[in-house]
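Quick one: structure for this chain?
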Amino acid sequence: MNQFRLQATLNQLSAVRYTPVGIPVLELGLHHQSEVIEANLARQLQFTMDAIALGEVALQLADLPLGSELALQGFMAPRRKDSSFLVFHIQQAQAYYAGGATVVV
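Got it. Here's what it folds into:
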């Protein structure tokens, strides 16, 4: 099963483009920072990664300001057919705003 969940900050956002058949596509940059326990030791994680959203999710994410806190779900896939570089494909997202407001996109 290929299922991926991540909490991250939106740090890059491209303009929405459209596929030849009219599907909206949005490319994003994400930043993640957390602490996990591995082998009974605390490990600090900090990384950036590329992500992509298609369809209605792309249109809704396109309006978010940089710095938005996101809870994301989707899957990982190669950037291109024979590539070893992975990209996070976002299928569901929640954005968190100051004051505790949550917006599901």
